[in-house]
Amino acid sequence: MIGIDIKGKSYGDQPVLGNVRLEIASGECVAVLGPSGIGKTTLLRIAAGLDTDFDGHVTRPERISMVFQEPTLLPWRSAGDNISLITGASDAAVEEALLRVGLDGKADRLPDQLSLGQRRRLSLARAFAAKPQFLVMDEPFASLDKGLANDMIALTLELLADASIATLLVTHSEHEASRLAGSVYLLHGQPANLAQTRLPSGLS
């Protein structure tokens, strides 16, 4: 169980987050919606342990994977190395990870030899190859066209179905939230607070 209990977060004299409480069970995906600049990425960084300068407490497991807005790949290392160097996965595990995301046969390719969609798939492969207990996703399908975004959402759902991972998705897209998450929350106000919301039907 992931437990997030934030009493407040500020940057200097500027309050960003107010009272934010959230629990995510193993196997559950929770989405947090909100406009740009509201504090979604700040919440994500706190949840993942990247920001500890806040008032409150977070309970999280040791094994955490993150998927960012842009693929954070090592440009001078091959696709296979981008998985093995970060996760410690064996050659066989790397091959399996690439196969699951449709990148079989591309282990020796450098990131700039892959399309944007393939780099996004590689980022997902690396995240899941680490066998995380907690997966944090920050606008993972931003800048993708609708067709490619839908393909990536379907792939993510397939990968999540095979693992019991607590997942936190932050996004501005109601479509992504409705497809991936069982519970959806809205970050709003100044400082921002969290409220559970029900999305309109027909978004998926």
Automatic annotation (TrEMBL):
The record's annotation in PROSITE patterns points to: ABC_TRANSPORTER_1, ABC_TRANSPORTER_2
Q: Which species is this record about?
A: Roseibium album
EC numbers on record = 3.6.3.36
Q: Which residues form a coiled coil?
A: none
Full protein name: Taurine import ATP-binding protein TauB
Give the matching InterPro entries: AAA+_ATPase (IPR003593), ABC_transporter-like_ATP-bd (IPR003439), ABC_transporter-like_CS (IPR017871), ABC_transporter_ATP-bind (IPR050166), P-loop_NTPase (IPR027417)
Question: Which protein family is named in the record?
Answer: Belongs to the ABC transporter superfamily.
User: ABC transporter domain spans which residues?
Assistant: 1-203
Q: Provide this UniProt record's keywords sorted from A to Z.
A: ATP-binding, Hydrolase, Nucleotide-binding, Transport
PANTHER family, per the entry: ALIPHATIC SULFONATES IMPORT ATP-BINDING PROTEIN SSUB 2, TAURINE IMPORT ATP-BINDING PROTEIN-RELATED
Q: Name one GO molecular function term.
A: ATP hydrolysis activity
